[in-house]
Amino acid sequence: MYRQIAEDLQVxxxxxxxxxxxxxxxxxxxxxxxxxxRNTVRDAIKWLTTRGLVETRPGQGTFVPxxxxxxxxxxxGGAESAGGEETAVYxxxxxxxxxRALISDPRVEIQRASQVVAGALLIEPGAQVVSRHQRRxxxxxxxxxxxxxxxMSLVGRGAAKLIEARDIDGGAVAYLARExxxxxxxxxxxxxxxxxxxxxxxxFKLPADGRVAVFTVFRVGYDQNGDRFRLTITIYPxxxxxxxxxxxxxxxxxxxxxx
Length: 259
Hints:
The protein has 259 residues and is an alpha+beta fold. The protein is 28% helix and 29% strand. Strands 4, 5, 6, 7, 8, 9 and 10 form a seven-stranded antiparallel beta sheet that branches. Strands 1-2 form a two-stranded antiparallel sheet. A hairpin with a 2-residue loop joins strand 6 and strand 7 (141-151). Helix 1 packs across helix 3 and helix 2 packs across helix 3. The longest helix is centred in the first third of the chain and has 14 residues, at 2-15. It is elongated, with a radius of gyration of 23 Å. The N and C termini lie far apart (57 Å).
């Protein structure tokens, strides 16, 4: 019985009768519609969930997931791009793919450095840092979230805009080069994969069972003296992101081989 219910709902999803992003009828409504027990309806929803056809959001209900076209983010870069910043690359790549990009206004805080932040920046745990947090969207779908941490000492050296809750023209990296002479000449990425936490599940609208993991990219920026001056942590859900690394003179993906 539960398979019959699940397969009927599957047909409605694939035909568009139950649209992408729409909510399924409640458990009570499904029981009445199919004249089935609670356990039978729950087994049908479980069958659909394991196949990625629906997802349950705590406190909200069961939904048909949005159809998401993955976006490819290039993380690699040679010496010529070492002085760049992620936001500019993100905007350029989204525009080039003929999609629509949106970045939230920054949320700026002065914090005490955690063990992770202190270890990345080689400062004392508890030392003051500036954090700048932004959320990114592609075609109105939450795509990634990013937080950058800077030692508070940079503000004392003239980088006052780091603590302003607004975008910095040209990005923080270019601003620090102009105002403080701190020029990014290199960066190192460390990537891990983990289950999302509660806030990430809520923002990205991910299944609560953890079957969609997130990439966490830790990027440490180095200045011309080899000193660490920023830590940028970017969270990418794995269901809508692909990470690309190029090594050597790789031709563009749309360019045909000369052979």
